[in-house]
Amino acid sequence: MFGYGRNNFTWNGTLKELESSYPAICKERHRQNMTASPHSSGGLEVLLSTLQNAGDVESTLNILNVLDELLSAGTDRRIHYMISKGGSEALLTALVNTGRSFTPNYTILLPLLHLLAKVGHRDRRIGMKAEEAGAVLLTLNLLKQNINHARRAAACLWVIQVLSSSVSTANLIGENQGLDVIYCLIPQYTTKHLHTIKAAIHAFAALLCTKDNVCSVVSKGYISGLVRLYEDWHSKDTQHVALSICYALLLCLHKVTHSTAGRQAFISQGGLRVLYQTTQTCMLSKALESLVKPSVQLMRKCLPKTPLPLTSDQSAYTFPLPGRPHTVPDIDVTPDESSDESDEEAENNKETDYDEDLETDLNQLRIRPDPDRPKDLLPQYSRLCPELLHDFQELDLSSEPEESSPASSSSSSDEDSVLLNSFPPRTSRWDRRSSSFSSDSSPSLSASHSNKERATEGHTPGAALLEAWDFHSHSSILSTSPRFRTMVRKAREEAPPGQRGDEHDDVEEGGEESHHRTTIDRLLERHGACIPHHEPKLYRTAAAKTISIPGFNILAFPDFWGHLPPPGHEPMVPRKPNIQRQKVFEDVQRFLNTDDIINQVVFDLEDESLQSPSNSLRFFSKFECGNLRKAIQVRSYEYDLILNADVNCSQHTQWFYFEVSNMVADVPYRFNVINCEKTNSQFNYGMQPVLYSVKEALEGRPHWVRSGTEVCYFRNHFCPARGRKRTTFYTLTFTITFKHNEDVCYLAYHYPYTYSALKAHLKVLQKSVDPAKVFFRQQILCSTLAGNSCPVVTITACPASRAWKDIHQLRNRPCIVLTGRVHPGESNASWVMKGTLEFLCSQDLVAQGLREAFVFKLIPMLNPDGVINGMNRCDLNSEDLNRQWSKPHPVLSPTIYHTKGFLYYLNSIGRTPQVFCDYHGHSRKKNVFLYGCSVKETLWQSGSAVDTVRLREDPGYRTIPKTLDRIAPAFSFNSCNYLVEKSRSATARVVVWREMGVLRSYTMESTFNGCDQGIYKGLQTGTRELQEMGVKFCQSLLSVTKDTLYSRRLINHIDLDHNILDHKSHNCFEDDEPPCVEEIEYSTDCPALKGTDLDSDVNSNMANF
Ligand SMILES: [Zn+2]
Predict the structure, then answer these.
(1) Whole-angstrom distance, CA of residue 186 vs CA of residue 1077
(2) pLDDT confidence band for 479 (50 / 70 / 90)
(3) pLDDT 10s digits, 864-912
(4) C-alpha 822 – ligand 1 centre gap (Å)
């Protein structure tokens, strides 16, 4: 390889071997210089000690040579061993001894500096050691003396780079003109001394690890110089021989732009434009690929922070909380004063240890805390066990309808249709259109929009040939106007009083008898899809009773009309290569090329008078679950969308649902949801948003379809509108090419499922069951803060007869309690719940068996207010309700308070649920899986010292997940876990497990995306698969029935021809997705220089001797 002197040693062993075999040689060779401590017997120590006290050049060179040989071969372990034996100190002392001389001997100094660079690079404390040895300024002086001597300068520069790993050392060098000296060593493009130039740039970059040095560089105007240097090298290096120089310059720019002032200087010096242009040329050449990533990251970092164009970050909707002044606490108004300019050293400890969150306190894991309320508050919940109170008179009286059951008394949905009919139809869109035809002066609000094409279509009003546009949300067809609402309310009040607390959805016929068939009737007849368990008119009646904060009185078409899963599967979309990069370029261009930028607000939830221009898309979101706050047309076919924050708060944006219309067909429109908050999303891993087209629905294809190309999710340059604490926003971008002109479409994060849909669905179910066989009761758990009722449903089998034996069997059935949708943005949970409900009401043999074995208590929507108002995470109290279970507030978190109270009650009467499961959606993982609770697994995982061998735990918590793994294609056993985390101690699952003693207490998480195993591998889930999961969960309950023989027979009945087992891949437990090909989060740095990179530079400097 190479050598400093004449004697080359070859060595293939370890340093330890050296210690045992070399002492003799060493001693022999350096006998005169032996000053090592008599106790030190190791060969390495001898070498190091000799080095520090070396007298003659030749012995010193020999030692350096031996050390370099030793350290060059093998792994870094040798160097670390040497460091542990004082190697750094020895080299530093030798450096100081040699370098102090008036005429330093470079024959020794050069190899010494080289070795120091290699060793120091692996010694985290090298800076401090160098300061103690007085080697820092000495090295800087050597550099100053050798600025015209490329090899020597390079050697000094590497050492300076290495020493600058310490903030105080870097500052020391900075204070002594180090930055200026080194900056002067970076010339314009040249082909000479590339090694030295590269070393200078790296040393310069290393010095920029401190705030002081960055400030100094910014104030001296070096940023402009660095930008120009980069531009110069980049443009002239046509043969790509100086790539590493360009890369190193980017590294410097990354470092200086850590500070706000640095970023400002970078922008004002045209850095953004230079990078944009150079990157465009980079992309033409594969050789330059390595420069693209750091360039793109730098551009993203430096894009000027742009506040969201909102007057306030607070939600557009506020709700006065009981017992609180009617002012919304703006918790986050303190301006962001935290500096982004902190020194780097301290910044690398952000990762919190996952295991630290595990609950290891055995008391916390085992002891049940006292109930959170007095015992005498529990009997009120007895009303929620109607199956225990019911006398089943009707069983003997056969067909007589049951008085307290609205299900059996209501014969059809006539009352709803009458109500619909009585609604004046003559204000619908096409009437207005006809009036605008007859007189062009008619100031019809939507005339500008509709006339242009319609005139040629020749449709005559009254022909009931409605176009999609007629179903635009503003249209009265989809309105539940105040008048309609009053009628519904009146009818409700007049309804015969039933059992207290029971839900009575039946609406008596209104006074206005109207027999003529309405538009909606004709339409439903003509186009209406036959959607199981969905009745549009019933939906409308339910929606009229739903209380929203803004007072929604318009229905979104898909919720009203209903939808069916599209035929065929929807595969996850493969990510287009470099899509994120491309989108970032488009975003950067907003700053560089403003010619095509429109930047016009076209929709504002808070400004209803706003008229969108005729050539822009129209947006609307004032309907249940809708939450678009603002839309800004950025370019002709590009829109920024801002989501409304959760009510009474200024954050939690992720879920979206809105209407879009006035589109031109076959043109790609880019949509950017610019205030997402999650750090990563399945949108980066094949997931698409969902789209519903009214036109398609009217043509018989009422589907929510996964749509959007160029889907990508990344951190953006927006910041909160007003001084909220350091918040980072993410952009979800996707491109939609609409199929039809002038369609009305809906876009959503996931298949919407409204509160009104639940109410309507429960009613349909109630009507569907045979009351002689299925005991189905819908009751009100409690009223929400906004005044909506939170339904609780009881489903079980009616006893076979009124014989004591049968009634007794019913009253002793174990309970299963299922809850869902505590997080309003997780609409997938509702679809799973829908599957569960339908299955439990069905005539399926297994369902029948389950009803005979259990009493099901379902609370399908724990957070109605959140769902209704288009929230993502919280309730009106701006709290995450799934963190309130420890001590729920009776007034502010009523649904949780009463669900828990009901569970306490069941506990108190000896009917503790056998299974509890809370349905959720998971935004960052694939598949469906369960979280459970296990003391043993938690202690094992945490590495706790508690002796788990003697700890007894019923392993029954694994039965259901194991069964699901066998029968549910979307389910992944490997993704389940049973660890109790401290941060989850107030969730439903943990509280029900700990406080109620429910062994099988779960959270069921369903993906928003799809599966990466089983027969659904590579497919996005639809409502069909989600509902199927709800069915499978029920079926899995057979595994916990007492009558095992019977259940085994039933399990065989479950359709197993999926052959799931063969397809299950055994993916190991992983927390999140593997990183994308492209970084989601830009790192603040270029990738760190690896030790081996420095080594090869140093080595080549020697080779060039
Ligand atoms: Zn959740």
Answers:
(1) 34
(2) confident
(3) 999 999 999 999 988 899 999 989 999 999 999 999 999 999 999 999 9
(4) 7
Q: Is 1035 inside any structural domain?
A: yes
Written as one letter, the residue type at 297 is Q
503 is catalytic: no
Average pLDDT over residues 23-28: 44
Ligand 1 centroid – CA 1027 distance (Å): 17
Distance 820 CA to ligand 1 centre (A): 9
Render pLDDT for 940-990 as a digit per residue (tens, 0 to 9): 888 777 777 777 788 888 889 999 999 999 999 999 998 888 888 889 999
State the Cα–Cα distance between residues 1075 and 1082, nearest whole angstrom.
12
Tens of pLDDT, residue by residue over 278-309, are 988 877 787 788 888 889 888 988 888 889 99
Domain extent at residue 284: 218-300
C-alpha separations of 798 from 57, 745, 779, 808 in Å: 102, 45, 18, 12
Co-location of 682 and 723 in the same domain: yes
Residues 939 and 1025 reside in one and the same domain: yes
Instruction: Give me the count of residues in the chain.
Output: 1105
Residues 607 and 546 in one domain: no
Select the more confidently predicted residue: 380 or 356. 380
Q: How far apart are the first and last CA of the chain?
A: 13
Answer yes or no: do 637 and 587 share one domain.
yes
**920 CA distance to ligand 1 centroid (A)?**
4
Tell me how far the alpha carbon of residue 835 lies from the centroid of ligand 1, in angstroms: 18
CA of 772 to the centre of ligand 1 (A): 37
> How many domains is the chain partitioned into structurally?
4
What angle do helix axes 211-219 and 167-175 make, rounded to 10 degrees?
Answer: 30
Residue 750 Cα, ligand 1 centroid: separation in angstroms?
A: 14
> For residue 900, what are its two tokens?
């828990």
Q: Is pLDDT above 70 for 387?
A: yes
Pairing of strands 638-643, 668-676: parallel
Q: Which of 394, 467, 624, 1005 is an active site residue?
A: 1005
Q: Mean pLDDT for the chain?
A: 80
Residues in contact with 254: Cβ distance below 8 Å, sequence separation at least 6, in sequence order:
205, 294, 297, 298, 301, 1084, 1085, 1086
Q: How far is the CA of 259 from the centre of ligand 1 (A)?
A: 37
543 or 286, greater pLDDT? 543
CA-nearest of 403, 409, 423 to 510 is 423
